[in-house]
DNA sequence: GGATACATGTAATGAGTTACATGATTCC
DNA sequence: GGAATCATGTAACTCATTACATGTATCC
């Protein structure tokens, strides 16, 4: 369902677009929000067209198909956003690794946490840069809300990793655990 | 892979445990980290046993089977945590809804964001309570690291929702967008 | 004796990944 | 003319959800 809605939303915001470009968007600007491979995008677009939520507006060179969202598609998107209870299922590999941290000895745990801290610091910088290009309060630009959320989550994880590093060090100093 | 590792990790930390109890753990204490239904847990345990990463230690009343992790299982877990590059794929329904927020009119968007703020405030309180029961610096307790991460992420989302609410209100005041 | 919780499984379906397969246009 | 990029698809497999199916122990 989420992929379906992501595609409808992208078509609403970008206007007529082909599957290739939509796939690129998942890999580029949407990568910290939702991801999908072309092998998932093309069949999904076909299904959306079958259901009448999108239509093939025109076909271009190299077999290109540009899709547009229909009124039914807009309705479906709005309905999903406003009426359907969000799926709160959490499946966070990062958090899982955090949970399993205490199964490692101190050196391994410290190394892992350091790597995470570095990764999320870099990532926070990257998303922050993206957000700052959209941040202008005049902009009703798409992606501002998502970018802001991305920055906040990413920097929260980076901070956690710093905290965990310090805590592991404190444990070491006390000669605890292992 | 992650479910596999979650099960190995739980068996390492809890000692011999049956599938029913492991499933309960996913629903209770692990729910903000990783989730899995019993229909996924039982076959996965069977596969782990086939591969020799766990063994059935004993069988109890009501057909109960208690699994223990083997040395090979411990090695596999450690290898995954220290050598395997984490899967950074993001598929965050929340962030997706955030991204799609500007496709809604102001009232709908504000209502959505308000609901999210409330949900994540409640959730933050709940995880905070869990964390505080583990927080004692003497504790090498399992779950401290994951609980701390959960609190930080959850409160980051709650803060974001407050920010988004204010930003939508500012847009309204300026008579912007729709 | 009846409700509830414990306990384990399978089947059908949907979602997502990796690999296979093909061809057209553009850039150099 | 060759490489890179644009462009679309399918197949096999893994992962996850929902529903179906069954039986046992305990609590009251």
Automatic annotation (TrEMBL), chains A, B:
<dbReference type="Pfam" id="PF10400">
    <property type="entry name" value="Vir_act_alpha_C"/>
</dbReference>
<feature type="domain" description="Transcription regulator PadR N-terminal">
    <location>
        <begin position="7"/>
        <end position="78"/>
    </location>
</feature>
<feature type="domain" description="Transcription regulator PadR C-terminal">
    <location>
        <begin position="90"/>
        <end position="169"/>
    </location>
</feature>
<dbReference type="InterPro" id="IPR018309">
    <property type="entry name" value="Tscrpt_reg_PadR_C"/>
</dbReference>
<protein>
    <submittedName>
        <fullName>PadR family transcriptional regulator</fullName>
    </submittedName>
</protein>
<dbReference type="InterPro" id="IPR005149">
    <property type="entry name" value="Tscrpt_reg_PadR_N"/>
</dbReference>
<dbReference type="InterPro" id="IPR036388">
    <property type="entry name" value="WH-like_DNA-bd_sf"/>
</dbReference>
<dbReference type="Pfam" id="PF03551">
    <property type="entry name" value="PadR"/>
</dbReference>
<dbReference type="InterPro" id="IPR036390">
    <property type="entry name" value="WH_DNA-bd_sf"/>
</dbReference>
């Amino acid at each position: 369902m989420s992929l379906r809605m992501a595609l409808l939303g992208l078509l609403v915001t970008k206007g007529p677009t082909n599957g290739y470009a939509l796939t690129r968007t998942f890999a580029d600007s949407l990568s910290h929000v939702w991801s999908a491979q072309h092998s998932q995008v093309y069949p999904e677009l076909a299904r959306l067209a079958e259901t009448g939520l999108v239509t093939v507006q025109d076909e271009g060179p190299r077999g290109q198909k540009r899709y547009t969202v229909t009124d039914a598609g807009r309705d479906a998107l709005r309905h999903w956003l406003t009426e359907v209870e969000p799926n709160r299922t959490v499946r966070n590999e990062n958090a899982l690794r955090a949970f399993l941290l205490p199964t490692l000895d101190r050196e391994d745990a410290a190394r892992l946490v350091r790597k995470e801290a570095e990764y999320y610091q870099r990532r926070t910088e990257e998303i922050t840069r993206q957000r700052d290009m959209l941040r202008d309060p005049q902009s009703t630009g798409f992606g501002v809300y998502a970018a802001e959320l991305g920055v906040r989550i990413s920097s929260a994880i980076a901070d956690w990793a710093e905290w965990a590093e310090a805590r592991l060090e404190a444990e070491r100093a006390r000669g605890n655990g292992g």
